[in-house]
Amino acid sequence: MTTVVRASVASRVASALKYVSLIAASVVVLLPLGVVLLTSLKTSDELAAGSGPLTPPGDWLNLANYVTAFEKGRMAEAALNTFVILVVSITGTVFIGSAAAYAIDRFTFRLKKLIVALFLFATLVPSITTQVTTFQVIDQLGLFNTRLAPIMLYLGTDIVAIYIFLQFIRSIPISVDEAARLDGASSFTIYRKIILPLLKPAVATVVIVKGIAVYNDFYIPFLYMPDQSLGTISTSLFRFKGPFGAHWENISAGAILVIVPTLAVFLLLQRFIYNGLTQGAAK
Amino acid sequence: MTPISSSLRRGSAGAPRDAARHSRQRPRHGWRQRLTPWMFLLVPLALLITFSYVPIVNMVVYSFTDWDGVSPDYTFTGLENYVEIFTRPELFKVFVASAYYLGAAVLQIVLALYFATVLSFNTRFRNLFKGILFFPYLINGVAIGFVFLYFFQEGGTFDTVLKLFGVGGEHLWLGDPDLVNYSLAGVSVWRYMGLNFVLFLGGIQSIAPELYEAAELDGANRWQQFRFIIVPSLRPLIGLTAILAISGCLSVFEIPYIMTGGAGASETFVIQTIKLAFRFDKTGLASAAAVVLLVIILLVAWVQRRIVPEERVTP
Questions:
Q1: Is the ipTM of this complex over 0.85?
Q2: 3-state SS string over chain B?
């Protein structure tokens, strides 16, 4: 009897500790973000008067900083640039990745081993180490300071997508291809009408993994598109540092503007994001 | 890295299946059939060569020259750049910063393992906690940089919170060379812990529930279940994460660059390389530095292959 009682006391303590640790971790995650949200709602006078970081704003509906951040920070332009780059590079990745995976899995050809090895080795090379010389390539192609620079780099260096598509293609039985081939379908028809539609779940994964990576990428647009009018979400936000100086109410509003779309997508697509990342992020 | 490599390799080594298909198709199709796969591979290969292999080859070539990145010609200087990297101590001290990130990575893996285990058991508001812990991973790096620039301000949020716990004073969390790397490594844990946590959680949930039931019947407590069921099943995933953490801490760039500009003690290897190339026009030296980093990372990847059996890694 006493052991049972002791066990239940112990498990209650353990359970309490568990919730304490989870709540503590949640506070650690949310506090830095919450403080920035509070600051984004304060006026510059409030901040100048020494309003502490944990003090709530005087007016909870003061959105003036957001207007300033959006207009002076050229966020509309940035959103458009990011959107164009996102759509083109995701669409391209889906077609290029699935085509490469189709060729590698469904055909035998000379040099196949070499080609597979080339793709394989490229995954091991961290792209940041080769930026110095990648820059020369982009420059010589005349792509510097154009939206095509990041697009081409996102297309050309995405081997993870090929891997995700390979895994899915392998689960599609070859008999499907063969039946279509007997009906007179060419390889292109098989790829376009049979393989691509069956790859939908893989496409979802690639879109999510790639979408997050492109939306958040800072380095490539920073290096290859320094032009003011070619800002993306990341680089336009980065430029807040200069003109807004110590105007933390505006910088905070800018940061929140960038985070909100991510939060919305996360809440809508939670399950897909978890699945997509467990499949894709093993990179 | 590993799952990709294993799956690609299986693609090439699927010998029996390929052979069967091959013999059936060969007689009916001639050169056109042989050309077909190349039509599909044309664009992917062109991109791969232009944006991966041309830069890699150029990088190796430049690393043996004194090129400044602008002038039309350069001279070959042999191993001079490499000698410079290994003999100038100030070029090597950037690896000190890597040690902080490595320490952070250990903390990050331990925390991720703890929270993944805790949330794999019955917990109230499970999805809410999971979402909160994971969300930082999705946030834009520049936004994270600004959030923590504000957080670590002198007399800012962190100092205010510390005061609530009785730790007084104002600290230069990002200005003091003794503190800056702790602060930045802390941001790294905040940002990336969620990804490891979700990967571990996925791994734990793929363990057959009968194992726990059997263990419970045998009287195993939670700690024993963790020690003898969860840890062994996650070992390949933990190994992979640990080794990715090593190459990750060598190529840290974004957060220190955004938050401190990579000034002083917070300078990392990649930031130094970028500065050499784009600010000091030492393309040759920067290329040699990049080759050194590449060799280190390839070595780490090779070690990973040796100690983590591939087939079991894929979650």
A1: yes
A2: CHHHHHHHHHHHHCHHHHHHHHHHHHHHCCHHHHHHHHHHHHHHHHHHHHHHHHHHHHHHHHCCECCCCCCCCCCECCCHHHHHHHHCHHHHCHHHHHHHHHHHHHHHHHHHHHHHHHHHCCCCCHHHHHHHHHHHHHCCHHHHHHHHHHHCCCCCHHHHHHHHCCCCCCCCCCCCCCCHHHHHHHHHHHHHHHHHHHHHHHHHHCCCHHHHHHHHHCCCCHHHHHHHHHHHHHHHHHHHHHHHHHHHHHCCCHHHHHHHCCCHHHCCHHHHHHHHHHCCCCHHHHHHHHHHHHHHHHHHHHHHHHHCCHHHCCC
